[in-house]
Amino acid sequence: MMKNACELCTQDGGEVVFRNTSLRVVIANDSDYPGFCRIIWNAHVKEMTDLSEAQRAEMMAAVFAVESAVRKIMQPHKINLASLGNMTPHLHWHVIPRYADDRHFPAPIWAAAARPGPAQSVHFSDNWRAQLSTFISTSLHT
User: Fold this and answer.
1) Does domain 3-141 have CATH number 3.30.428.10?
2) Which among 8, 17, 34 is positioned nearest to 139, based on CA atoms?
3) 46-72: per-residue pLDDT in tens?
4) pLDDT of residue 4
C-alpha cells in the first residue's frame, strides 16, 4: 500500500489527545462509546513485529497507559483491547470502554446492536476529554 493511500498516514484518525515522535493517541468520537481511544503508530507499519523490541514496548506502554486512563476517568464495566487493522492496515490499537447496558454488550461492538442508543449507566464529568488527555500525557511522560 502506498503511504499516501493510507488514511492513518494522511489523517489523525480522531481527536488527538497525545502525540510524540513515535505515536499518537486519539479519541474516536463514537457517541455510543465515549472514551473509545486509538493508539496509532505514526510511521506506516502493518504489524507489531514490524517494530523493534523497544518500539513494541513503547507501543504497549501507551496501550496500557490509555487503558488505565479510560478505566480511571470513564469507569467502564470492562475494557476491550484490539489490534485488527483489516480495513486500515496501519498499526493501531483500540481501547474501548464497555458498559453492561451499551448498545452491543456483551457482544463485540461490530455485532448487531442488542439495544438502541448509548449506555444509560455512563456517568462522567463534562470535562472527561481534558481529564483523559492529562492522565495519558502524564502517564506517557514518566
Assistant:
1) yes
2) 17
3) 999 999 999 999 999 999 999 999 999
4) 55
Give the helix/strand (H/E) hosting 142: none
Cell of 54: 523497544
pTM of the shown model: 0.89
Strands (E), 1-142: 15-19, 23-27, 37-41, 78-82, 92-98
Count CB-CB contacts under 10 A for residue 74. 22
Whether the predicted pLDDT of 139 surpasses 60: yes
Question: How many other CB atoms are found less than 10 A from the CB of residue 115?
Answer: 12
Which residue bears the cell 518500539? 55
- Distance (Å, rounded) from C-alpha 68 to C-alpha 132? 10
Distances in Å between the alpha carbon of 89 and those of 7, 8, 9, 83, 107? 10, 9, 11, 10, 24
Q: Which residues touch 18 (CB under 8 Å, ≥6 apart)?
A: 24, 25, 133, 136, 137, 140
Pick the more confident residue, 125 or 77: 77
Query: CA separation (Å) from 37 to 2, 3, 16, 71?
Result: 25, 23, 10, 12
